[in-house]
Each structure stands twice: as structure tokens, then as C-alpha cells.
Predict the 3D structure of the following.
Amino acid sequence: MTAPTDVRHSERGAAGEPARPAGATKVRKLPILLVVLVATGLLGAAFAVPLVLGTGLVAKSSADYFNELPAELSAPVLGRDTRLLNADGSVLAVLHDPENRVPVTIAQIPQAMQTAIIDIEDSRFYTHNGVDTKGLARAALRNSQAGGVQEGGSTITQQYVKNVLLNSAATSSEQQDARAQNIGRKLREARLALAVDAQLTKPQILEGYLNLAYFGNGAYGIGAAAKRYFNVPVERLNVAQAAMLAGLVRSPTQYDPLKNPVDAKARRNQVLDRMQELGHLTPAQGQSARSSGLGLNPLAPPAQGDACVQSIAPFYCDYVRNNLRNDPALGSTPEARDRRLNAGGLTIKTTLAPTVQTAAQNAVDRAASDSEDVGVSQVVMRPGTGEVLAMAVNRKYGTGPGETTLPLPTLPYLQPGSTFKTFTLATALEKGLPMSTSFFSPACYVSPVYNISQSARDNTSGSTCSDGFSNAEPDEVGTYSIPEATWKSVNTFYIQLEEKVGVPAVVDTATKLGIPKDRLKGVGPTSGSLTLGGFPVSPLDMATAYATLAASGKRCDPNFIVSAADGNGKPMPVSNKQSCSQVMDARVADQVTGVLEGVITQGTGNPNASIGQVAAGKTGTTDSFVSAWFVGYTRELAS
């Protein structure tokens, strides 16, 4: 059964619609509006006193104050999933609104539903201009007779405004302001309601209201409510169902059909009575609907899960999401950014390359299974652009047994070992030291410049080198040039090379190539273990720095977004954009690359790092083999 389609009111823009009052006309009605607000109990006595004096001056002051209130309302795009896309346009992940909301258009909402909500909430919806002074007067009379506030007189437009303000509130404090029972909120809502009525059509206002209203039991908006209570799409709501939902908005708890079915049915019948009273149901239609049961077929709200879990690159997905949560382009507060990111209908195209991600994931999975104690992580970047193409971990992403959300690709969790020698090498070449620079490198070298840390002493306790720096292998004793010492990764050579150039210079080189400064904030001028990788960094840090060498000294900060658009398809100025600069002379960077190529062809990277084409890289291990690294690159990829 459906309600008659004629609501008996013309819409804005319809042929023959009477002219709307101009803004000045609305202002002239203001003193009456304020007096009625006072009479209804919606405005306090302190504000009522000057009004009832009836002076023209007070009325003018009130009107001036009213007109100075904000008259623009920015309605949020809500309940629309945000899509994270891969670089090829395929879907990386879909971020969902934490609220159960199914946005619908006014064309999808049956006339029975539109009629029911208007009849019970605001029967003059199609004739007033956003604030119904006659409705307020009626509410005032009823409240006076009842000796308390029994009816508020708010129009659907005012309720829409309130819901917009609530959903736009960025903080809990702003949400409290949007709910506050005070003069300021009521006047602001009234002012905005007049503006909204002038800017939007009645169907647009009704659509917005029905998508924002809360219907209880976790159902936000009419689309979700139809599914929650009856498990039907909104288009299939009948008169009785529509009346029940329309009755819920006044008090979703009191009229909750799942917990209070008797009250819910009484309220539903009250709505049906009102529809019949206004001529929108025939007596037969009304009686038929009232005699029916509630017809509930409740559907539980969708389970809330982490959208990144099902992604082909869950740790990359999490990395992108966390960066966007800190992007001011999405809002001024964490709450506002989260709301827009999850429910703003954004489309964000990332730099992730599915083929590269698949290869990286296969590589880490082959290195160690997710059941082993060894954690393996890989990050792949494109030199010259900073595009992050892949992030892989040999662990399942999640919070369940055997799962983790620990961001191994981006976390400064482990020391990089001898992969950090590359920065001492680059510093020496940048300072003009020739490749032939050589040192005798003993098995144990006690530096006259650098302190050895207590932890290093602990790791070498019982050895013959507890007060010095030692090589990884006893047979590395000898005299080496820069290339040879790099290929074999001779520790005592690199300590002496670091003495030659100075720790601060190595720090400067590492940070300009791409290691974040805060990773090295504990490094002092006598921290000789720096060149041996004694300070934790992340795989992303190292991939960034080595990509700079691959690009002949052109550093590009990690870049994870190709483009971003808001819920209306308009480009968004997200802060993550390609940022590149030449930080090292290209000849020096290419010299470093030439040395690192030898690591693969005749050094510690041979033969495991050979990939059948020209590549460069550096191996690294830490004490007791807590971690083992390889950072390598071609002109096209750094990993």
C-alpha cells in the first residue's frame, strides 16, 4: 500500500509558485519570531525581558544581531566510502563510514516516507520559509497549557541544520555546542534555516534531513534504517513501515521497536492518524495500516573491520591512511580528518604498483614464512620521483593471533649495520678524498677519537677487542683502498675513514640524502658506531637515501599519492606531493654508485644480490645477527 503522491504543497521552482519573501521581509518578522520562541520556552527569561518591553530600539537591535549571525551552511558529504586506488586505477582499499549510513536520493525515497515524516514533524514544510512562526505559536499555546515544554516547534529545515552542525563538528566540544539548550544555538539554527530555505529546494532539504537523521540502533539516515529494521531497500518501504520510521526520529530510544514494540506501534499509529487527518491517507488505508503488525525483520549493522586487512598491500594501506589522518587538507582536527577520510566519499589514487607489490610480497614470503620468528620487510621506491611502489612484510596484517599492525617498513626499529657505511663513503668522496685513500685495518682498532659504547663492550666481552672496534671476520686484516674496503665491508677501515671526515659530516650526508634528522638526534661527535649503523632507521628511510644516489644525487621525499578528489570529484590539495631537489653533485653520487656496484659483482653481495643487470647496493648485519640488511638499486628502482 502506498500513500497518495500529492502532498498538496507546491515546491520551490514549480510553475505558479507564489513569490518568496525577500530577506528584508524575513527580518521584519523577526521580533514576532523571537517572542514566540520565548513563549515556547525555547529562549530564556533573560532574553525575554527586553523583548516584551516592545521598544522599537530593542527590536532593531535584535534584528541586527540576528542578521549578523552566520548565514552559510556547508553540508558534509557523509556515508560515502573513500576509495584508495593503486597507480593503475585498481582498488587498493575501501574505507568505510564507522556509522551505519546508506545515502539515498530523494527519488529513491517513497512518497509514503516523505509524507509521513512531513506530516508528523512539520506539516507546513512546503509553505514556510525555514522557520514556521505559526507552528511556533501553536507550540507556545500547547506548552502554556501543559505548564512545560511539550512541543518545540522546530521545522524539518531547522532539524536539518542541527544535524549538519552536529555532523560537521570537529571536536566533542563543538558537538556539545551544537546540542546546547541555549539562546545562541536556537538563533543560529533559525538564521541558518532561513538561509538554507533560500538556497535549496524543498526536496533537497528533505533529502538532506532524511540522510542525516538518526533512527536508533546504529542506523543513520533513512537508507540504513530501512535495512536495519525491515531488511529492505528504502524504495520498498510501505506506508506502515514509513510511519514507524517517521515516528522514531523524535525519540529513537523511547520508540525503539526492538526493545519497546508496544510504544513503537502506538507512535506509528499516531503518525498514521496524522497522515489521515491531513488527507494523505483514506480512512480505509489508515485502518489497514494501523491493524498491521510492525513487520520487523531486523538486520544487524555491518561489522566494522580494518579496511586495510583485505588489501594486497595492507602495511602500505595503513601507511597511506595514517599520513592522510595527519593532513590538514582533510580538516583542522584529528576527529574531522578521520570523519572525512572514512566517510567523505574521497577518491585517492596512490603510487602503489600492484606488479611490484606482488613481487616484493613473494620475495619476503620466500625469505621466511609468517610462522617463523624472523620478520622480513621490503620497501621499493622509484628514484627521481619518490614514488613508493611497494611495501611488503612476511606477516599477516591485523590484530588477531599471529597477526601484527607493527609498521616494520616505516618504523625505525632496527640498526642498519654496514649499509650505513655508504654515507661515510659519500662524505669522503664529496670532500675530495681519492679512491686510493687507504688504511691498514687491524682485527681490533682502538680509536683515539671515538668512544666505544657500553653495549658494544658487552657484545665483545671476553674477546680481545673489548675496548675497540673489530671486524666481522678475522681474515679481513690488511691494507685496503676505499673500493676494496667497501666491497668487503671492513669495519676498522671505515672507523678510520670516519675519523678522517668526522661524524658530523656523515650525519649531514645521511640527512640530506634522505635519513630523517630525528633518527640521528642522539649522535654526538664521538659516536664512532654511526658508520657501522649503530642508530635505528626504517627500510623506507634507507630506500629513500639510496634512491637519491640512484637518481645521481636528486633527492625525492617519499611520495604516496598521485591524485586526490573530494566527494564531489573536485581535486583536493593534499600535502603529499612530489618534492625533489638536487642535494649532491651528480658526479659524486655516480662515483658512490660505481663503488657499490662492486659490492654485488665482487664483494659481500656476490652472488646473492646479482639480478642479471647492472645494480648497486650494500649489505649490513648487526651484532649477533639481530638484523641483516641489503639496500640496492638500479636507475629504475631502489629497494
Confidence is low (pLDDT under 50) at residues 1-32, 38-60, 457-462. The first strand starts at residue 82 and ends at 85. DSSP finds 24 helices and 18 strands in the chain. The two ends are 65 Å apart (CA to CA).
